[in-house]
Amino acid sequence: MSLKNKSIQEKTADLTKLVEWFDSEEFTLETALDKFKQAEELAAEIETDLMSLKNEIKVVKQKFDKEA
Amino acid sequence: MAKSLNPIFSVSDFIAVVNQTFEYAYPTVEIEGEVASFKVNQSKFIFFDIKDKTGSIGCFMTVWQLRVPIEDGMKVIVSAVPKLTQWGKFSLTVKSVRPSGEGALKKSFELLKTKLGAEGLFAVERKRQLPTIPQHIAVISSTQAAGYADFIKILNDRWGGIKVDIAHVQVQGVSAPDQMIKAIDYFNQLEKLPEVVVIIRGGGSADDLAAFNDELLVRAIAASRIPTLLGVGHETDESLSDLVADVRAATPSNAAQILVPDKEEVVRAVNSQISSLLPRITQIVDQQRQAIRLMLNSAVDSIERTIDERLRKISSMKSLLVQLDPETVLARGYALIRGSVKVGSLIQIETNKDIIKAEVKNVTKK
Questions:
Q1: ipTM for the complex?
Q2: Shared-domain flag, residues B157 and B254
Q3: In chain B, what residues touch A9 (CB-CB under 8 Å)?
């Protein structure tokens, strides 16, 4: 799944993983900057998604006031 | 004898005409009174009288039509069709009964609460968790209600990207329970189920909220395959629907707060996570820099120690060499003798200051 198609929840999970990497034993200074840039981009994308997404509100056509 | 102008009916015709007149004049009547002589026959048919101080009318209904428990002495409003039976007895064929007045509403509430509680409908073990962030929700409410507007506003303010299907129903009055039940059934029969059903209604009087104490509605909420969230009335209002729902919100706005997180808070949390990373990197760089500095200092110390040691050795050897220098020995008063140690031979004696030639006169073994 490309980053564009991921849901906010998936992106948030990815960001959490990235942040956890900084406290893990896998941390190396050599890759830290790349990971930091990735995290920054992801955070910006999450913010954009959150602020731009609208709810899709629809009143269903079914009528509930008719006698069964 | 003059012939009467009044029509002559058969008994059955007259009963039919009276019933037609009733149907025309009073298709449905609502009568308020006190319940008396309440009884259930064959677990199917209910008979009771509705009375006031001076009058009393017999009532008939079926068990499945009785949506709230009633008992003798309870004040109720019956919705009924007046009817003259084939035996000439006037009665009301009751379509619905609802408690009237605070006392009756409370009594009915307590009776049904005890009954449904005994069946385990309110048990904590039955409660299901709502999805963390739902992507598809069903809302049962009146789209004209203030509570609905509050819910939608808070929902839109807090989160986006949710598919929200609204079932527009009455949330007050006699037909409200049936409409809400139909809406619950409708959502539960969809091929792709919503993740949560939210039932919304703003505040109101006890009578306004009585629909949420309807037995069949409470049972429909309990039977829903989809987890339920109820946001009805104010925090202090408690209905049986509140008790049976998986999650109860204090108000419609609170229901939206329970359902989704606040995007502003999420953005703040995300940015805070990112902000915490740079100090972490700086801290690690500082730690590594300090470790390198310590290693360098240690190397320099080691080199310095080696040099000092070597210098000390050289100095020691140097002083030894000085001690071994013949000039030093001569300076201490010793003399250096060159030549053969034989009587009569010439030898050379070197002192600190002189070189002396001498003849060996005598040699004695020590």
A1: 0.80
A2: yes
A3: 132-133
| Same domain (yes/no): B272, B290 | yes
Cβ-based neighbours of B262, under 8 Å, separated by 6 or more: B157, B158, B159
Domain residues for the domain of B355 are: 327-359
pLDDT-derived band at B304, boundaries 50, 70, 90: very high
Strand B75-84 relative to strand B163-168, pairing: unpaired
- Asked if the structure places residue B127 within a domain, the reply is no
B-chain residues within 8 Å CB-CB of A59? 143, 166-168
* DSSP conformation class of B161: S
| pLDDT, tens digit, 9 for 90 and up, residues B274-286 | 888 888 888 888 9
CATH of the domain at B20: 2.40.50.140
Do B255 and B296 fall within a single domain?
no
Note whether A22 contacts B271, CB cutoff 8 Å: no
Residue B108 has pLDDT above 90, yes or no: no
Residues of B in contact with A47 (CB under 8 A): 267, 270-271
Tell me if A55 and B164 make a contact (CB, 8 A cut-off). yes
CA–CA distance, B333 with B141 (Å, rounded to integer)? 126
Distance between CA A47 and CA A64 in Å, rounded?
39
> To probe the interface with B, which of A64, A65, A66, A67 has the most B CB atoms within 10 Å?
A64
Residues B82 and B31 in one domain: yes
Count: domains in chain B:
4
Question: What residue type is B28 in one-letter code?
Answer: T
